[in-house]
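Model it.
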Amino acid sequence: MPMTVYLNNSPRSAGKGRASRRQLRLPLHGSKATGAEIEALVHNISATGMLVESRTPLEIGEVIEVNLPHSGKTATRVIWTSGTLAGCQFEMPISSATLSAAQLRSVVGPDAHTNEDSPAPVTESFGVRLQRLRTARELTQGQLAVQLGVSEPSISAWELDKARPKAGRMEALSIALGVEISELLGFDGTENLNELVERAKAQIARAAGVDPAKIKFTIEI
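Modeled.
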């Protein structure tokens, strides 16, 4: 199922010494394109890349920053184009948790039923969340690095969303921070995730014309 996303009309400055980059934003509940954005479609997303359809021409070699669930800004490069379609490759493969969350968002969509009186959810990147959990634990970057057996610059890069810990380090990181992996990855709670999965199953089942009981999900963390 294609996912509606919001793409900047033109690249934004990425700072001194860096090429300008477009921003691609995944939809939140009830969100719409701003004046500087147009609607585009993501037809497929995997751990290594995605297929984007946009009426704004994208150029081979162009870098787009995508704000993905649980990982924050992730750079993807256009490696081929054909008409309005563009094949994009992530500069670093995304985690299974990020991929699952993005795919679920594409199924549920931005217009899923929500309580209009509830405030819109605030997206917290992995790096911001890691810094918050570390400071709450009263650990310095150096102390956390020693516990994990990594360098202090690695911790800094994670908190700046410039890199992600390897999947094998997530459990050790959650233990060091004294939290569950689900909290480290930004899930609001098991109950909310289960509700999201059940809603996604129901929509997939309706589209496929099968019983929801036959729809199975595997979410790897």
